[in-house]
Design a protein that fits this description.
- With 139 residues, the chain is mostly helical.
- The protein has one domain.
- It contains 7 helices and no strands.
- Helix 1 runs antiparallel to helix 3 and helix 6 packs antiparallel against helix 7.
- It is elongated and about 50 Å long.
- It starts with 5 loop residues before the first helix and ends in a 12-residue tail after the last helix.
Length: 139
């Protein structure tokens, strides 16, 4: 079995750091929580609380990717290389967004959100979603 690449380890560690930071964001160590800040503003469109359950599905998907990309097949079929360091960037931007938002630096947190969006667009494009066929292992 070949050893893991720095990129594979980086992807996994970046997600773990993101998950830890998301947990800490509701632990009380910051001056606010995301929910408190969201509820304290006049937001024109705020979905019902149950809608936020989608984040559970999103995190399950992210964990699935982090585990999948550690497998030799992900390295061999080029998935890891196509994703590149964009996943790491998206995780770091997510952590940055949380910190900035929790300190009520909304405009700066918006910049972090744009970095997340850009990184995800790059991943989408580099993976060729909807543009190439994939084998059953990659699904």
């Amino acid at each position: 079995m070949k050893s893991l690449s720095l990129l594979q380890i980086g992807n996994f560690v970046a997600l773990i750091a993101t998950l830890i930071m998301n947990g800490l964001s509701n632990s009380g160590i910051f001056p606010n929580t995301v929910g408190d800040l969201g509820n304290s503003r006049a937001i024109f469109f705020l979905p019902e609380t149950y809608v936020f359950a989608i984040w559970g599905v999103i995190y399950v998907g992210l964990i699935g990717f982090a585990i999948y990309q550690l497998r030799p097949v992900a390295k061999a079929n080029g998935t890891v290389d196509r994703v590149g360091y964009w996943f790491v960037l998206s995780c770091l931007a997510n952590i940055t967004w949380l910190v900035l938002f929790l300190y009520d630096l909304v405009w700066l947190s918006t910049v972090a959100m744009l970095v997340i969006l850009y990184a995800l667009i790059m991943i989408y494009r580099r993976l060729g979603i909807g543009q190439r066929t994939i084998d059953w292992q990659e699904r």
